[in-house]
Write a structure and sequence with these properties.
With 246 residues, the chain is of the alpha/beta class. The protein has a single domain (11-236), classed as NAD(P)-binding Rossmann-like Domain (Rossmann fold, 3-Layer(aba) Sandwich). Helix content is 43%, strand content 14%. The chain has helices at 20-31, 64-78, 101-129, 141-144, 150-170, 188-191, 196-204, 212-223, and strands at 11-15, 35-40, 54-58, 83-86, 133-137, 176-181, 234-236. The protein has a 7-stranded parallel sheet, sandwiched between helices. Strand 1, helix 1 (20-31) and strand 2 form a beta-alpha-beta unit. Helix 2 packs parallel to helix 3 (101-129) and helix 3 runs parallel beside helix 5. The longest helix has 29 residues, at 101-129. The radius of gyration is 17 Å and the shape is globular. The protein starts with 10 loop residues before the first strand and ends in a 10-residue tail after the last strand. It binds nicotinamide-adenine-dinucleotide. Residues 15-16, 18-22, 40-42, 59-62, 87-90, 110, 137, 139, 182, 184-185, 187-190 line the site of nicotinamide-adenine-dinucleotide.
Length: 246
């Protein structure tokens, strides 16, 4: 069965949309006729090489006021934002006693506080339009914890509470907020921080390692009208089925 979306006239902002899962989502939104804004601290111009439906922007989501100015500019430029996906994340691997307060706070700013700052702009905009969806990412580490990943795991747990609170505040206005734990996915965020042994653990015993192509359809569902009755949900992909191998 082939699933097709029609994203014509839809504006989707993907923070952390330069690489990995966010980049895959930008490409799929463009493919479906929508406009994707790929905003990343490491912008990826190749995404716009073969399409005018992807706009590449440089953005540091850890700079709250800068993020708010950016969203206001996109609203002014395009008239509206239909969906905002916060995919940007960092995961320094340090023991707690070795982590500087500066590093801890930077992880909080990039992974967690970014959603607070973005929501301050997006909630008034989307509730006024009675339309819009916000999506961000949790992680299995939110409930298991992980040695040397305390800051990352903490933000990924807190994001569940924040997105569910956004969902409660926006529920009367038809605006939606959902969060996905995508499962271990073969991107820089998996291969970068994890040692060879850790990667092997996830591949063999930890539920498996998935691909960007497997996660993007779940995101398309969450930002599309197919999920218009779904809000405050945590979609958790703990075990991975590879459809092409099943
Ligand atoms: N890959 C996995 O195994 C996995 C597992 C669970 C959750 N997640 C979550 O999925 C989301 C997407 O991760 P991914 O796997 O595609 O990783 P990725 O590293 O491929 O992509 C993350 C993107 O965020 C960007 N970024 C980092 N800091 C930024 C900043 N300050 N401002 C703007 N952009 C910034 C990076 O440049 C990169 O393009 C993340 O929120 C991550 O926590 C991933």
């Amino acid at each position: 069965m082939k699933v097709q979306y029609d994203f014509r006239d839809r504006v989707v902002v993907v923070a952390g949309g330069g690489h990995g899962i966010g980049a895959g989502l930008c490409q799929e939104v463009a493919q479906a006729g929508g406009r994707a804004i790929s905003a990343d601290i490491a912008p990826n111009p190749t995404l716009a090489a073969h399409t005018d439906r992807i706009q590449v922007e440089r953005l540091d989501v850890g700079d709250g006021p800068g993020l708010q100015d950016f969203l206001q500019r996109i609203i002014a430029e395009h008239g509206h934002i239909d969906s905002f996906v916060q995919a940007a994340a960092m995961q320094p691997r340090l023991l707690i006693q070795e982590m500087s307060a500066e590093t801890w706070l930077r992880v909080m700013d990039v992974n967690l506080n970014s959603l607070f700052y973005a929501a301050q702009v997006l909630i008034p905009h989307m509730t006024e339009r009675r339309y819009g969806s916000i999506v961000t990412f949790s992680s299995g580490l939110a409930t298991t914890g992980w040695a040397k990943a305390s800051a990352y795991a903490t933000t990924k747990a807190a994001l569940v509470a924040l997105i569910k609170s956004i969902a409660k505040e926006t529920l009367p206005f038809g605006v939606r907020a959902n969060i996905i734990a995508p499962g271990i996915t073969d991107t820089d965020l998996f291969t970068g921080p994890n040692s060879e042994d850790e990667q092997e653990f996830f591949r063999v015993r930890g539920g498996g390692v998935g691909t960007v192509d497997e996660v993007v359809p779940l995101l398309m569902f969450l930002i599309s009208d197919a999920s218009q009755s779904l809000t405050g949900a945590l979609l958790s992909r703990d075990l991975i089925i590879h459809p092409q191998q099943a």
